[in-house]
Each structure stands twice: as C-alpha cells, then as structure tokens.
Amino acid sequence: MSPSFIPEPVARQPWHVIAPLVALVLFGCAVLYSAAGGNMQPYATSHLIRFALFLAMALVMARIPQQVYKFMAYPAFGGVLVLLLLVEMLGAIGGGSQRWLSLGFMTLQPSELMKPTIVLVLARFYDTLPAAMTASWRGLLPAGALIGVPVGLVLLQPDLGTSLAIVFGGVVVMFLAGLPLRWFLGAAGAAAIAAPLAFFALLHDYQRNRVTTFLDPESDPLGAGYHITQSKIAIGSGGIFGKGFGNGSQSHLEYLPEAHTDFVFATMAEEWGMIGGLFVLIVFGLILRWGMRVASNGKDRFSRLLAAGMTATIFFYIAVNLMMVMGLAPVVGIPLPFMSHGGSSMMTVMICFGTLLAADRWQTRSTGIG
Prior knowledge:
mainly alpha
C-alpha cells in the first residue's frame, strides 16, 4: 500500500527500476561534466534535458493500450522505411557516412528508430501467425524480408553497428517465437563461411581496419589502434577507486577520443575506478533483469516477444559498448545507454524502456492490480 497522499498513477510505476535509472543518468551527467572540463555545457545540461523529456515520453507510452501498439506496428515500420529512403536521397553527410536527416530544430538518425521498430513489427507478425506455421517457411521468409530491407538500407549509409543491432533484435524475436534451432545454427555456419568473403568484398576500408585493429591494436597504437589503446589505458589507470572526480588525465588532456560519447565508460572508469564500473553494471543488471521478468510474465505472445526484444535491444547497446571500450570487440560506434551524450541513441533506448513500462502495465491490469 502506498501513502494516501501519493497519486495512484505515480505510486503504480516500477520505481525499483526508475529510481536506479535516474541515479545512473545523474552519474552520467557528473561524468559528462568532468569530460567538459568542469562545465555543464555542452554535454551535461543537454543530457539531463533529453532524459527528462524522453522519460516523460516513456511514461506516456506506458499508458498506451496494447491494441494501439498492435495497430501501429506496420504503419510505424513503413514510416521508418520511408525515413531511411529519405536519408539516401536527402541525408546529411558527416564523417564519411550519410545517416542523418536535418529537421531544422533537430537532427534525426532514422536508423536508430528501426531498432525498436523491427522488434515491434516482428512481435506483431508472429502474434498473428498461427503457431503451427511458425516452424515453416511462412514463419521465416516474411520475417527475413522485414529484417533484410531496412538492414540493406542502413548498410548503404554505411553503418555496420546499427545494422548488427537491427539484426540482433530481430533474430532474438524470431528465436523466441519458436523457429527451429537448426535454422539458426545453419545460418551461423553460413555466416562463418561467408565472413572472409564479406571482409574483403563488402566491408569498407575503415571497417576492415576496425577488425584488424581489434585483433592487434598495438600494431598501430598511434593510428587505427589509437582509440582502443587509449581507452584501455584510461580504464586500467583508474584502479579500484579511480583518480578522483575531475582528475582524469586521459579525457582532460584529450588523449581519449570521443570521451563523452562512445568512450564515456573509459572516462568514468579513470576517475571512479572499479567501484564506479560496478555501480554502472549493477544498474544495467537491474534494468535487464526487470525487462526479462516483464517478458516472462507476459500474458500473451505479443507481450512476451515485444518485451524480450526490447530488452535484447538495450542489452546489445550495453554489451557491445562495454566490450568495445575494453578491446573485446571492434570499434563500431555504439554509445553506452543513459550515459553517452547523444539524442538519437537516448531516444531509442527510452522508446524501448517506455515499451517495457507499457508491457508491465498490461500485465498488472490483466491480473487486476492497479
């Protein structure tokens, strides 16, 4: 029972997840404040404002009925596909890639929107597909097309990291929908055979350099391996308790590239050490455990697949970024959720979070709670 002076819609929220999430974002603001040389501008203030706006958006999403999510699945997918096509025709070019649409008041990266959208549309697809047909070509080919078309458009930008995120979320939904395991093992075997050909024939030069640098970053420590080398130096120099807030030499002396975005965990670890890293991992663990609990408690196939896919998408962000900054994966430009500075990635993760809030609410309403 909540105190009577707390409004019921407020008391009903899963504060055991929201409160640690807010603490993580505030911690991220402290790291961004330090990365800017002890200034709230230009990173920390905008990070806080974006989170507040997107948290409000997530809370609104939590109130949306399940039928609306089902109804909007295919229109949303079609809308994001149109945006991806517009990127090819009108998109802004930055860093050698064409990924953004300028809307005047903001710059939008439509490929980010496809990460939660692919989960939504596949959850809807398998919800309407008779269970007996899941293990047939009717459960495979349409889903493969739903994944393949946007992935192809994103690869044209080119953006390998986002393409892999879309594939990961989609494949998780397909696997949990009940497609035979042998199909996934066969696809993995085919991918392993095709990987050498793709490495030489399909990847761009900078993408090949990322892979070779990942395998041996010390071979070119001042060139292609610079990012990973400086990141590992920053993390290692933090030790257990870190150098202290505002005392990170790697970020302040600008040895560490992208200290406020892709490598924000390294910035944090240098100043806060292993203790800070454990706090970040614990909060992420709480969020992911809650997401999987929402999925396992779902009362219908759509809810279970939707919640599991959104949780998997958040997991992909976390796992790939942490592996990347520690030299366990190639540098692919995946930001760390709730800590890295960036509007598009924050929006994507909060859409996933808002969808999980909605799925959690559908469950409580179906059991007569709230």
